[in-house]
Design brief:
Blueprint: E1 2-8, E2 13-20, E3 23-27, H1 34-42, E4 46-51, H2 63-70, E5 73-76, E6 87-88, E7 94-97, E8 100-106, E9 115-120, E10 126-132, H3 153-168, E11 176-179, E12 197-198, H4 199-205, H5 215-223, H6 233-242, H7 247-254, E13 257-258, H8 260-269, E14 273-276, H9 280-285, E15 292-293, H10 300-307, E16 315-318, H11 324-332, E17 339-343, H12 346-352, E18 361-363, H13 365-374, E19 379-381, H14 385-390, E20 392-393, E21 397-398, E22 417-420, H15 425-436, E23 442-445, H16 448-452, E24 459-460
Parallel strand pairs: 3-4, 4-5, 5-6, 10-11, 13-17, 14-15, 14-16, 16-17, 18-23, 19-21, 19-22, 22-23
Antiparallel strand pairs: 1-2, 2-3, 7-8, 8-9, 9-10, 11-12, 20-24
Helix pairs in contact: 3-5, 7-11
């Protein structure tokens, strides 16, 4: 028996390769499936099943392409309906893979079809669970993502409570927990950085598994402080339910080298978004006017999904040399399949063609501190709500990147703004968006709040109102 977790940091997502005696199963595969196919081929085994724990909202799964390439059967849990062929498992149904078995436990709550898969080893012992978004290490799945459901998030949270108590917590303490996500995922609010653990440990440390917790307490705690889901979540869930174009087709269409003239024509004639995925320092120094920065060296796909409203938005790329395929692949993971090509030769070729570039001013935290000391300046803190409340610069305006479109009317294009985040990645994204929308007096604070904390700049924190 072999179990391999294939973890993708950008999405904080774990897929699983399981193998026994000439047969294999894949759980929650990514959009690009060649990795799984290569593993099976190298070990001379047949992929028999593709198990999906639920209709994923934070990424487009590769179940369709993988089934087509291997002949594997796609398995969802009870209540799942799709626009393509798949098998909807019954609660407690068992599937054989070589000398081991996978049992489907219906665990609704995160979504109605959510299912936890229990691996039974060669001796029939319950060895591990693949818990999807039902149970994370340190948290449980958010109960507000059901597709077109008449149920409230409170209804689903109640279902999740029952699923955890009657299906998960009754399992042995030494069973291994393999969740679908770790820290950094928006599918929960308190996920651990660890990606593998034991159920017994979770019973002791996970707030949602407290033995004395009532259903009412669970519902309140799970829903408390949960941020609205990113706008692309519902769209990705529908793609996973209805189907999507083959990944190879998307890659072939998008991985096209464009001359500066063709690149510019597509931006103008097709209204293509110019997406610059280079290092942020390179973008700050020189970029194409009106282009948007979201760098490959950060949480690229989730920020694309959060900030670009239309999955069908035409996109042309400015990429580091040799990174076009990676950029297109990572876009496709969150359903952005309309890449039209990339600028061949990058900014160097753009300049050589005699075309204009723009830049964004960036200063150190020390220089920022000097400016704050000398005069009152406008500061935009683009971190998340929890980060801002924990500690922030006195009089800084909270302007969360997640909600930049909703809050544009809160700032004035005629005023200068200094922008910071936690480390420097999000502030450059925000500055690029503002610059493209006519805010030309923006300055990035390099190093973000991590660097700001080392200066003498006065900081304050949110104080909860007294309940006494």
């Amino acid at each position: 028996m072999k179990i391999e977790q294939i973890y993708t940091g950008c999405l904080a997502q774990g897929a699983y390769y399981i193998e026994s005696n000439g047969e294999a199963a894949i759980i929650d595969p990514l959009r690009e499936t060649q990795t799984y196919i290569d593993k099976a081929k190298a070990n001379d085994v047949k992929i028999k099943y593709v198990f999906e724990t639920h209709f994923h909202a934070d990424f487009v799964s590769g179940h369709l392409d993988l089934a087509k390439a291997t002949g594997a059967t796609i398995v969802f849990g009870p209540n799942a309906t799709t626009d393509y062929d798949m098998y909807s498992a019954k609660d407690n149904e068992v599937f054989s893979i070589g000398n081991i078995s996978i049992k489907a436990l219906h665990t609704p709550g995160h979504t109605l079809e959510s299912t936890t898969y229990v691996l039974l080893d060669e001796n029939g012992k319950e060895h591990a669970i693949f818990s999807g978004d039902t149970l994370f290490l340190g948290d449980v799945g958010r109960p507000d993502l059901a597709i077109k459901s008449d149920l409230t998030k409170e209804d689903l949270a109640g279902m999740l409570y029952d699923s955890l108590r009657t299906k998960i917590m009754t399992l042995p303490d030494d069973i291994i927990v393999y969740p679908a996500h770790g820290a950094g995922s928006a599918c929960g609010k308190n996920l651990s950085k660890e990606t593998v653990g034991l159920l017994g440990e979770q019973k002791q440390s996970n707030y949602a598994l407290r033995a004395d917790m009532t259903k009412e307490e669970f519902i309140k705690e799970v829903l408390n402080g949960i941020a609205p889901p990113p706008q692309y979540f519902a769209k990705n869930a529908l793609l996973n339910k209805a189907g999507y174009a083959p990944f190879e087709t998307i890659l072939e269409k998008g991985n096209i080298a464009l001359t500066p003239e063709r690149f510019e024509a597509l931006a103008n004639e097709e209204n293509a978004l110019m997406l610059d995925v280079r290092n942020r320092k390179d973008f700050l120094g020189a970029h194409i006017p009106n282009s948007i920065f979201i760098g490959l060296d950060g949480s690229f796909a989730p920020w694309v999904g959060a900030l670009i409203a239309d999955l069908q938005q035409p996109i042309v790329l400015i990429v580091p040399k040799g990174k076009s395929e990676e950029a297109i692949t990572r876009l496709s993971r969150v359903g952005f399949d309309n890449t039209l090509g990339y600028l061949e030769g990058g900014i160097k070729a753009w300049k050589a063609a005699g075309k204009e570039t723009d830049r964004i001013n960036s200063i150190s935290a020390n220089e920022f501190a000097n400016r704050l000391e000398k005069s009152k300046i406008n500061v935009l803190d683009v971190r998340k709500d929890g980060e801002y409340k924990a500690k922030h610069i006195e009089n800084a305006q909270h302007f969360a990147l997640d909600y930049i479109d909703k809050n544009m009317n809160e700032i004035d294009p005629n005023k200068p703004y200094h922008i910071h985040c936690a480390g420097g990645y999000r502030s450059v994204i925000a500055a690029s968006i503002l610059k493209a929308r006519g805010f030309h007096k923006v300055t990035d604070v390099s190093g973000g709040f991590a660097a700001i904390k080392t200066t003498a700049i006065p900081l304050t924190e949110f104080v909860c109102p007294s309940t006494l």
